[in-house]
Task: inverse folding
């Protein structure tokens, strides 16, 4: 049974409970992070903590802990579970309030940290690649909730994911209101064409993915040209390679899109090189958990 951090205590999973009046539950009013740790080190911890604090500021949620306190709570939770490799779900809810929207009536935010394992796709998918479709569910425009906020409102993504799964695909490509490619339901997207690498800009409507940024650095280090143009479905239809990035998914090839093979329908050489470098980076960097 796993040990869960909840508001200053580490308790058994069965004891980790929140109120039914928590606005995180009633309204999806809260934020979260998904973080991986490898070989006893937390990958890109500072980046995740920074994004959490930015998400909080963006939704006017005053965190009652410092960055150092959140970091220590996170490390403590992993230690309590005696894990070296795994996945952390860190959730901040607005806290207990009344049956009305106002966040100002909520007493204090709650911090929940789960240290566990995650495996989104089978080994074959990492070897052979995913199937993608275009989702009808669009990414709302920039005047709505910003996709940069990693909020507890994932229904837009979940509806898109349902479409992909019902079509027999593992992931779906989400377009923005103008029809440009934003990202996938839980991952950022990259394509390769004639040896050059492309990923949509965050302003097209994606989360500012931490894996995306790490992979962009890897792409440059490997000597490929990299740019962030607005992309349409045509760019994916005519790409040589495609891959997705995310903390949970890591780097995974995509080989079919809207019933068409991408390139020759097999994971390509640039994807494989980026995947290999990414794995090396995860094994050789990060914040130590056990000193
Ligand atoms: N886009 C969405 C919608 C996500 O939820 C995630 C995280 N699962 C990503 C992209 C990838 O972001 P990161 O690399 O920071 O995990």
Result:
């Amino acid at each position: 049974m796993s040990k869960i951090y909840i508001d200053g205590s580490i308790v058994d999973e069965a004891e980790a409970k929140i109120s039914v009046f928590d606005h995180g539950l009633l309204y999806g009013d809260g934020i979260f992070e998904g973080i991986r740790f490898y070989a006893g080190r937390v990958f890109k911890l500072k980046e995740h903590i920074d994004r959490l604090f930015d998400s909080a500021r963006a939704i006017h949620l005053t965190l009652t802990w410092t960055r150092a306190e959140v970091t220590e709570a996170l490390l403590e939770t992993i230690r309590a579970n005696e894990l070296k490799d795994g996945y952390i779900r860190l959730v901040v809810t607005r806290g207990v309030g009344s049956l009305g929207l106002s966040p100002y009536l909520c007493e204090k935010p709650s911090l929940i940290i789960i240290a566990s394992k995650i495996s989104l796709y089978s080994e074959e998918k990492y070897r052979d690649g995913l199937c993608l479709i275009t989702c009808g569910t669009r990414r709302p425009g920039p005047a709505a909730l910003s996709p940069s906020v990693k909020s507890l409102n994932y229904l837009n993504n979940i509806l898109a994911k349902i479409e992909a799964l019902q079509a027999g695909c593992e992931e779906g490509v989400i377009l923005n209101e103008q029809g440009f490619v934003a990202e996938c339901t839980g991952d950022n997207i990259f394509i390769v064409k004639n040896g050059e690498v492309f990923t949509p800009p965050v302003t097209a409507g994606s989360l500012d993915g931490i894996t995306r940024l790490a992979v962009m650095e890897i792409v440059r280090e490997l000597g490929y040209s990299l740019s962030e143009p607005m992309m349409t479905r045509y760019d994916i239809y005519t790409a040589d390679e495609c891959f997705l990035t995310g903390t949970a998914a890591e780097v995974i090839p995509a080989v079919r899109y809207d019933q068409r093979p991408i390139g020759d329908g097999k994971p390509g050489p640039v994807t494989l090189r980026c995947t290999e470098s990414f794995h090396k980076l995860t094994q050789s960097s990060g914040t130590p958990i056990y000193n």
Remarks:
- The two ends are 25 Å apart (CA to CA).
- DSSP finds eight helices and 16 strands in the chain.
- The pocket of 4'-deoxy-4'-aminopyridoxal-5'-phosphate is lined by residues 34, 157, 183, 186-188, 206-207, 209-212, 245-248 (CB under 6 Å).
- The first helix runs from residue 23 to 27.
